[in-house]
Amino acid sequence: MPEPIVVDGRSYEFIGISMGNPHAIYYMDEIDDLDLEAMGPAFETHERFPERTNSEFIQVVDRSHLRMRVWEREAERRGLRHGEQRQARWPPS
Fold it and tell me: Which among 10, 21, 50, 63 counts the fewest CB atoms within 10 Å?
């Protein structure tokens, strides 16, 4: 079930999952204009996630396509890049 959260004064809903580490999934109408470098740390270090979290921002394109941008927790410390876009098709071909 989606849970409400307020980040930097804006309301969102996320679905929390664990894949051995915490992930917060946010379904959004549009992901292209997200400034992940600016907003990512606020999601990662939100008080709701005491051990930090990875954040996936997902746009549903249609019934068989999603677009996703990712903020990886602690990626800056490890020298990784954030926000690269991925597209997925379901079912995979």
Answer: 63
Prediction pTM value: 0.80
Q: Which of 27, 16, 20 is nearest to 69 (CA)?
A: 27
Name the helix (H) or strand (E) containing 51: none
Strand 54-62 and strand 10-18: the pairing is unpaired
Q: Please tell me the distance from the alpha carbon of residue 4 to that of residue 44, in angstroms, as a whole number.
A: 15
CA atoms of 45 and 40, how far apart (whole Å): 9
Q: Residues 12-69: pLDDT tens digits?
A: 999 999 988 899 999 999 999 998 888 899 999 999 999 999 999 999 999 899 999 9
Separation of alpha carbons 22 and 55, rounded Å? 9
Owner of token pair 């996320």: 14
CB neighbours (10 Å) of residue 69? 21
Q: Report yes or no: 27 and 19 within 8 Å, Cβ to Cβ.
A: no
